[in-house]
Write a structure and sequence with these properties.
The structure is a single chain. The protein is α+β, with helices and mostly antiparallel strands. Among the domains are: 89 residues, Calcium-transporting ATPase, cytoplasmic transduction domain A (Distorted Sandwich); 117 residues, Calcium-transporting ATPase, cytoplasmic domain N (3-Layer(aba) Sandwich), CATH 3.40.1110. 45% of the residues lie in helices and 17% in strands. The protein has a 7-stranded mixed sheet, sandwiched between helices. Strands 1, 2, 3, 4, 5 and 6 form a 6-stranded antiparallel sheet that branches. Strands 8-7-9-15-10-13 form a 6-stranded antiparallel sheet, with no helix packed on it. The relative contact order is 0.10.
């Protein structure tokens, strides 16, 4: 049992602060009760606020793999005093309960009362994988043979009715006991789910003497559930299969210098690991010896291998191709980039998309209404219209089968899960169904420049002395200030000074000036290193200086000036190179009808020069983080649906305000994965048009599935009223549509 101090804020539809935790692997298996693995919300708040003494207890519930069970658990624990919040992870069958109870016995007992077993999980300990339960095939075979035999004997009058009844009863008991048990539990808890509806329908058929029908309905329902479960496993396994990408052992250097095979879970941070050609990398790390090419497709979706040498990052689950490498471990096995991706996708599956929320609400109203309607169909015509009781009770039972909203309920989650899995395989980490479903609405994309459109690794191209008396010291002073900053432009100036053997200068009172530059004291003198905006604000600009600035800026260069209290001392020009992929990405976005806007803190001339190179519609320069936010607001006022792409802290306000925030994740940067709505794992802008196309396909399939489910329901309701439908035909129709929407949703896995 996991008991830890726990406080949660209920999530909303657009939360940009997803804190990811280490991943714990859990076994997957078993059949589905209604098909949906992940339809329900991940978080259910039962009290207005969490008490100070609340703690989180985690349980594995093997029987909890669809919203039918979730609803039962939610209704049961919602009545238990002291339970404040529930967290459902249906893909791993794990339930988190935030409570202030003295122990977990009441929770375990409550779950036991609804026919499920809750296994407590220890905090921080991976849950032991249960041995797969091998199900015998003969009960289902017996059920099928019995149902068919009952139909044939009844049709041919080959034996008395009591023989048909016995054969049908054997068929029902061998194949439908589980359904009956689940149905009874649901009815006891006043929950009209699929199992309850099917149990009522089969029992009703028995009571009116329709034994063959009852047997065939139960058999077909059991078979459909089995097929449905196996089909849906494809979507689930598309994600859980990521977990199998990392080897269980790694070759680790010991204290005495020898190399030994060691369990990945026991390898400590900083340990030195060796990986041979052809081996999968077991842990995240940084190369300390050797060079090689690595296939990073499992993480980034890149089609070509990437060169790796000393100082480069490597990621768990990727494949070493050519040479031998040694790397120092930088993340534990349960907190690797791959593990965080898996966890993020698991969380994403619990966040309901708008269509899912609509379907859930619709089903809540639809099912009881149709149940009451079926009851009225069974009673009113015989009582008040002199109709035959048998006929109308039978029609009511058919209605109950038709009423099951199974196809409707599973139409959304299986599509969303398939879409999330397809995106993950392309190196696109989507943080929830709401973003996958909403991506097709984007008609405007705002982009940062440095590190997004360009490589983000500029180099110093020009140096111009503006004050002869400071000529000797200016480059060293600029290098000292630039070396304290992490801005790409500053780093270019610092790197340019590496080979110059300047004297080391101490910087005191260093301060970063957001969107402007930096300042610091050197030898008692205050210096500024910054852009044109900073010079203007300090009141040290002149027409002669601006002429020099504009000449360089028109070439697409960023200009930085070194200043003291008297004025500018030197000018440094830095140029960045445009990614080839950026040009192609902009072309693809335009082909999809998405307009583009570049927002940068760099000067206007550079912004326009870069925008012209890649074909961006509009460019704005000299922007502070608040200015970028205002630009997004302006687009909203014009009625646009805006996405924002960025890679730095200065982009955070705009990323948060945009409908969808895309982060250049640099193959797993913690901040990007944790804060973005969508993270591009290899910093390739072409992933965004791929995401929008996937979103459009997802939206299209969602509409197809819902329309299919509703239209066939409507047709069968009409056929039922006409007295032309039988119960087994209704099961065929309902389960047939369910399987149809499942397979239609699974098409996204091939995208």
């Amino acid at each position: 049992m996991s008991d830890s101090q726990h406080t949660h804020k209920p999530g909303d539809g657009h939360d940009h602060s997803h804190k990811l935790q280490p991943v714990h692997k859990h076994a997957h298996g078993g059949d589905s009760c209604c098909g949906s693995k992940t339809a329900a919300p991940a978080l259910v708040q039962l009290s207005e606020k969490t008490s100070a003494d609340a703690r989180l207890s985690s349980f594995r519930i093997e029987a909890m793999d669809c919203p039918t069970e979730q609803t039962l658990i939610q209704n049961k624990l919602g009545k238990l005093a002291g339970v404040e919040q529930l967290e459902f992870n249906l893909i791993n069958r794990v339930l988190g309960v935030t409570h202030n109870l003295p122990d977990t016995a009441p929770i375990i007992d409550a779950i036991k009362s609804i026919g499920m077993h809750a296994e407590p999980l220890e905090a921080g300990v991976e849950a032991p994988a249960p041995a797969p339960v091998k199900k015998h095939w003969w009960p289902l075979a017996l059920s099928g043979v019995g149902a068919l035999a009952a139909e044939v004997i009844h049709f041919t009058n080959a034996a008395p009715n009591w023989v048909v009844a016995i054969i049908a009863l054997i068929s029902i008991l061998s194949g439908g006991l589980t359904t009956y048990k689940k149905g009874w539990i649901a009815l006891k808890n006043f929950n009209l789910n699929i199992n309850a509806l099917m149990s009522i329908a089969v029992t009703g058929a028995i009571l009116i003497g329709q034994w063959p029908e009852a047997a065939m309905v139960m058999f077909l329902f059991t078979v459909a559930e089995l097929i449905e479960a196996r089909s849906l496993d494809r979507a689930r396994n598309a994600i859980s299969g990521l977990m199998q990408m990392t080897p269980e052992q790694a070759t680790v250097q010991q204290a005495d210098g020898t190399w030994l095979e060691q369990e990945v879970k026991s390898v400590e941070l900083g340990a030195r690991v060796r990986v041979k050609p052809g081996e999968r990398i077991a842990l995240d790390g940084e190369v300390v010896s050797g060079n090689s090419t690595i296939d990073q497709a499992p993480i980034t979706g890149e089609s070509l291998p990437v060169e790796k040498t000393i100082g480069d990052k490597v990621f768990a689950g990727t494949i070493n191709q050519a040479g031998s490498l040694e790397y120092a471990v930088t993340a534990a096995a349960n907190n690797s980039t791959l593990a965080r991706i898996i966890h993020a996708v698991e969380q994403a599956q619990g966040a309901r998309a708008p269509t899912q929320r609509f379907v859930d609400q619709f089903s809540k109203i639809y099912t009881p209404v149709v149940f009451v309607f079926a009851l009225a169909v069974a009673i009113i015509p015989p009582l008040f219209m002199g109709a035959v009781w048998f006929d109308w009770i039978y029609r009511a039972l058919v209605l109950l089968v038709v009423a099951c909203p199974c196809a409707l309920v599973i139409s959304t989650p299986v599509t969303i899960v398939s879409g999330l899995a397809a995106a993950a395989r392309k190196g696109i980490l989507v943080k929830g169904g709401v973003y996958l479903e909403g991506g097709f609405k984007l008609d405007y994309l705002a982009l940062d420049k440095t590190g997004t459109i360009t490589h983000g690794k500029p180099v110093q191209t020009d140096y111009l002395s503006l004050e002869p008396t400071a000529d000797a010291m200016a480059p060293a002073i600029a290098a000292a200030l630039a070396g304290r900053s992490d801005h790409p432009v500053s780093l270019a100036i610092a790197n340019a000074a590496v080979d110059k053997n300047f004297a080391v200068l101490n910087v005191d009172n260093f301060e970063a000036l957001g969107g402007r530059g930096v300042k610091g004291d050197i030898n008692g003198q205050t210096y500024h290193l910054g852009n044109h905006r900073l010079v203007e604000e300090l009141g040290l600009c002149s027409p002669q200086l601006e002429e020099k600035l504009f000449a360089l800026e028109k070439q697409g260069k960023s200009v930085v000036l070194l200043l003291d209290t008297s004025g500018p001392l030197a000018l440094f020009a830095v140029a960045d190179t445009v990614k080839e992929t950026s040009r192609e990405a902009i072309r693809q976005l335009h082909a999809l009808g998405v307009k583009t806007l570049m927002l940068t803190g760099d000067n206007v001339h550079t912004a326009q020069a870069i925008a012209a190179q890649v074909g961006i519609d509009e460019a704005r320069g000299d922007l502070l983080p608040t200015d970028k936010l205002q630009a997004i607001e302006d687009l909203y006022k014009q009625g646009h649906r805006v996405g924002m792409v960025g890679d730095g802290i200065n982009d955070a306000p705009a990323l948060a305000r945009a409908e969808i925030g895309f982060a250049m994740a640099a193959a797993g940067t913690d901040t990007a994965i944790e804060t973005a709505d969508v993270a591009l794992m290899d910093d390739d802008l072409r992933k965004i048009p791929a995401f929008i196309s996937l979103s459009r396909n997802t939206a299209s399939i969602l509409k197809q599935n819902i329309a299919l489910a509703l239209v066939i329901k409507a047709i069968f309701l009409g056929v039922t009223f006409a007295g032309l439908a039988t119960m087994w035909m209704a099961v065929f129709a309902d389960m047939g549509v369910s399987l149809l929407v499942v397979f239609n949703g699974l098409r996204l896995l091939r995208k």
